């Protein structure tokens, strides 16, 4: 099976282990990460030759003091007010990067919505539904996983909401 072959070639991450364990179909895309690139998400889209509307970044925010994951297209940005509203919160701010890394178990630029050390409440931008597959970080810089938005939402228990803005 292709996904297991690709997993073993890349050594696996908690995200790919979670996908494999759940029996979800996915494709890994590895590329050489350039530390000087100004945007992890744009770099991923360019390296894979995928439209930035199909490549989603994983951001960690605090909504009323609770860490929350927001998954939005790299072509846009996160609307913090919309994120707060999506989880019935009052105020959202970006989380401290060190807290995000410590809580998820991933480094900035490689945070995946899957296989996190501590499972966080997750909101997926509803634009994901317009695509058969989307790409998200597979748990390290230079490694993306392509899967259906429905599978991502199911595995993360995500709420779908309009949290991205162009």
UniProtKB/TrEMBL annotation:
Q: Which CDD domains match?
A: YbaK_deacylase
Show the Gene3D superfamilies listed in the entry.
YbaK/aminoacyl-tRNA synthetase-associated domain
- The top EC class, named as a word, is lyase
In its keyword annotation, does this UniProt entry include Lyase? yes
- Sample GO molecular function, one term: aminoacyl-tRNA deacylase activity
User: What EC number(s) is this enzyme filed under?
Assistant: 4.2.-.-
Protein name per Swiss-Prot or TrEMBL:
Cys-tRNA(Pro)/Cys-tRNA(Cys) deacylase
Q: Which organism was this protein described from?
A: Streptomyces spectabilis
Q: What is the lineage of its organism?
A: Bacteria, Bacillati, Actinomycetota, Actinomycetes, Kitasatosporales
Q: Which gene encodes it?
A: ybaK
